[in-house]
């Protein structure tokens, strides 16, 4: 099994990375491969709302000048996905949000590519605003009908300078527990494949209130 993790921090080895790494360590103990992709320092443009991915239905964003389409395929091939972001103004870091908006819309309109995969989210924060960032990340996995592992508290670590999150004893425990629970859920999904009948996917209903 394989998990792909997306680090939305501008810092490659900052506290978001430490949170992801702590989760990944537990997954790797269970024989699950983890690939960490650094998104936060890339030039990723936001969604243009052009509708091209809906018209083309080729699992691609029409903007092919960056790595988003490559990452979409990695998400498709993975059994599980981790989304990590630092907290910027009580929200997801800008580059990470641009990536998520495009990637998750493409995967959604192209037959629900992430449906029933295992998806977890983690957040790094200096002091406060982490909960709202965490909730924003969870919107993507919830909308995609993913299976979401939990921990013993909200998946947030605290720290300012790179590496400080490792001094957050409770935060590190949260990430370890998340990793263990994610591994357990991944195994449940894998072992149920072909044994438990998967529910039929329903086409999305759109209700517009202004016509």
Task: Describe, in plain words, how this protein is organized in 3D.
The protein is of the alpha/beta class and 211 residues long. It has one domain: 3-Layer(aba) Sandwich (Rossmann fold). It is 40% helix and 16% strand. It is built from six helices and six strands. The chain has helices at residues 15-29, 52-56, 68-77, 94-109, 130-143, 169-192; strands spanning 2-7, 33-38, 80-88, 91-92, 118-125, 156-158. Strands 1, 2, 3, 4, 5 and 6 form a six-stranded mixed sheet that branches. α5 (130-143) links the parallel β5 (118-125) and β6. α1 (15-29) packs across α6 (169-192) and α3 packs across α4. The longest helix has 24 residues, at 169-192. It is globular, with a radius of gyration of 17 Å. The model has no long low-confidence stretch (mean pLDDT 97).
The CATH class is identified as: Alpha Beta
The major sheet is characterized as: 6 strands, mixed
Integer average pLDDT:
97
Distance between the termini: 46 Å
Q: Which oligomeric state applies?
A: single chain
Architecture, according to CATH?
3-Layer(aba) Sandwich
At the fourth CATH level, what is the homologous superfamily?
Flavodoxin domain
Shape: globular
Total domains, how many?
1
Structural class by SSE content: alpha/beta
Strand content: 15-25%
Keywords:
globular, six-stranded mixed β-sheet, single chain, alpha/beta, 211 residues, 6 helices, Rossmann fold
């Amino acid at each position: 099994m394989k998990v792909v993790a997306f680090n939305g921090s501008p810092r490659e080895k900052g506290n978001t990375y430490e949170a992801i790494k702590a989760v990944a360590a537990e997954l790797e103990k269970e024989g699950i491969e983890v690939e960490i992709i650094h998104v936060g320092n890339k030039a990723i443009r936001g969604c243009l709302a052009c509708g091209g991915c809906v018209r083309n239905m080729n699992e691609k964003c029409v903007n092919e000048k960056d790595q988003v389409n490559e990452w979409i395929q990695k998400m498709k091939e993975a059994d599980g996905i981790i989304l990590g972001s630092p907290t910027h103004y009580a929200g997801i870091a800008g580059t990470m949000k641009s990536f998520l908006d495009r990637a998750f819309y493409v995967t959604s309109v192209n037959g629900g590519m992430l449906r029933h995969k295992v998806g977890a989210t983690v957040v790094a924060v200096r002091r406060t605003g982490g909960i709202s960032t965490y909730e924003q990340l969870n919107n993507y996995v919830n909308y995609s009908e993913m299976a979401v592992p939990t921990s013993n508290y909200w998946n947030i670590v605290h720290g300012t300078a790179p590496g400080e999150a490792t001094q957050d004893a409770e935060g590190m425990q949260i990430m370890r527990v998340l990793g263990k629970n994610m591994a357990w859920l991944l195994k449940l999904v894998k072992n149920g494949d072909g044994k438990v009948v998967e529910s039929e996917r329903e086409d999305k209903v759109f209700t517009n209130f202004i016509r």
